[in-house]
Amino acid sequence: MKSGFFRVAAAAPRVTVADTVANTERIIDLARQAHAAGADAIVFPEMSVTAYTCADLFHNTTLLNGAERGIADICTASKDMPGLLILVGAPLQRDGALYNAAYAICEGSIAATVEKTYVPNYNEFYERRWWQPSTEYAHGSTIIRHKGVELGVEICEDLWVPIPPSCNSALAGAKIIFNLSASPDLIGKYAYLTSLVKQQSARCMAGYVYASAGFGESSTDLAFDAKLLIAENGTLLQHNERWQSGPQLIMADIDLEAIARDRMHMGTFYDCARRNNTIANVLPTNSETSEATYSDLLRNVDPHPFVPSVDSMLKERCEEIINIQVSGLCQRLDATRCRCLVVGISGGLDSTLALLVAVRAFDRLGLNRKGIAGVTMPGFGTTGRTHGNAVALMQALGVNMREISIVPAVKQHFADIGHDPEVQDVTYENCQARERTQILMDLANELGGMVLGTGDLSELALGWATYNGDQMSMYGVNAGVPKTLVRHLTAYIANDTDDEAIRRPLLDIIDTPISPELIPAAADGTIKQKTEDLVGPYELHDFFLYYTLRYGFSPERILLLAKKAFDGTYTTETIEKWLSTFCRRFFAQQFKRSCMPDGPKVGSVCLSPRGDWRMPSDASSGLWLASIPR
Q1: Is 46 a catalytic residue?
Q2: 26 — alpha (psi -120 to 50), left (phi > 0) or beta?
Q3: Rounded Cα gap, residues 587 and 410, in angstroms
Q4: Is 606 a catalytic residue?
Q5: Which of 54, 156, 340, 606 is labelled catalytic?
Q6: Active site residue 340
Q7: Catalytic site residue from 54, 116, 227, 429
Q8: Confidence of residue 286 (pLDDT cuts 50, 70, 90)
Q9: pTM of the model
Q10: For residue 214, what are the contacts with CB-CB under 8 A and spacing of at least 6?
């Protein structure tokens, strides 16, 4: 274990039925490979010492003695693999009965044996002919503590029953479950199994490491394909390539801190443990404190955790996100009996998505799109590019377009408060933002409508909004959508439409640098004030935001993950710089979030003070900033 990660391995050696000597040698070889790669624990398939398909040979003394010698040889070999827990399957004789068991071996000794709880006796499985079911007490679990981490074990069929033993193991404290299996292949079974492993890891809020027997098992009546799966809290981290004839080994790092945080945050997990009176029989290994020496994470760290990453689910996920926004807005319109929306359209990403959501909401409610007042308010920094895209999009969507320049009013305001317009400071910028909000609010009063907010989750996190300016609205439809996702959703809509008049401005808006356009444009008319030059790349800030809110990770841990996710994109120094900016702004700008408007939660992260995030506005960021190397 290192930095809160526990390195697991799942292996499927090629087996020879009833040849315990050959099988043991192959198990040891794969265990050595895993140990060399820094694994903390490795799991092998069910009956991996003998092979699963020995049938009536399981009641033969010669095979049983061979299995005992195989376990002894693995124990001996494990002395040269310090810190590695080896989980192998072999027969266990006790009190005149024979059990299908998992042996937990570490540094020369057997730390524990776990028997199969549910022994099937149907279809191709007639295991009750050879094995007795476990005598484990009700609601009880055998927990193996290795390197200070609680681990649970179950065997094949145990996973498929209504209440798997792993449920009790997790409630008793196990953070990772290992399954030794030998599941023959049938049409459609692999997809179901994969779903089952992911779901069980999610239900248990645990890691789940599954190893099933493969090539070499008897094909008398069945065919076996090695299936190796590593899941964590509903996500598949690693799997092997199927239909291979040679030995296979996969590895991944399980995030123990993430699991612990989710269990702590989800209070019902421990309510369930208490209600079920879960009891654990904890058996320690010989490696209670040692750490592995691996230096890099064996897991994919998505640099864009908010963005749908599976192509096959892209359309479904994007439509779901947009429909959550539309549904929230429809309910607000229906509850207030409002038939008019006022939206400030800048030609930027956020206002574009808000307008697209507004149009869908009006269409769903059967309202005339002319009830949407799209207002473009050019100011000192507005460029022809953003203004042109705003106008083109509103025209293509058929909303009621208005244009109101803020320049005369802001100049008058400068004169009223005595501000020199040549001084382009925060007053210069915020006066423009508040003037735009005043126009929208007053126009909403005149039209009997409501102002639709356009600010996104990333801007809320950084406080990149003018207090009582664009920070305020009557409903913030983008409040749960981070900037990286705003861009992605807009691109999805652009690519999904057949209307070229809509697609063209959308694609150009996506390519336009993000900017509040509060500073005059460059001499060539292009955007001079670029947000990401000032506060940092949004893809970094969204990454920081996700792991700060979703898991409550420390800056040190977020930095570790960010270095993995953005390797080759940003230097460590750059990541550290913007992580410091994020921590400083996130704390300092909480007061803006304390009075943010209503808006729908879209994903697992939200900053609403009425929902997911409640934080004092005067909390200190000192501990967080001090933990970032500089």
Answers
A1: yes
A2: alpha
A3: 31
A4: no
A5: 156
A6: no
A7: 116
A8: confident
A9: 0.91
A10: 12, 14, 15, 45, 224, 225, 226, 227, 244, 248
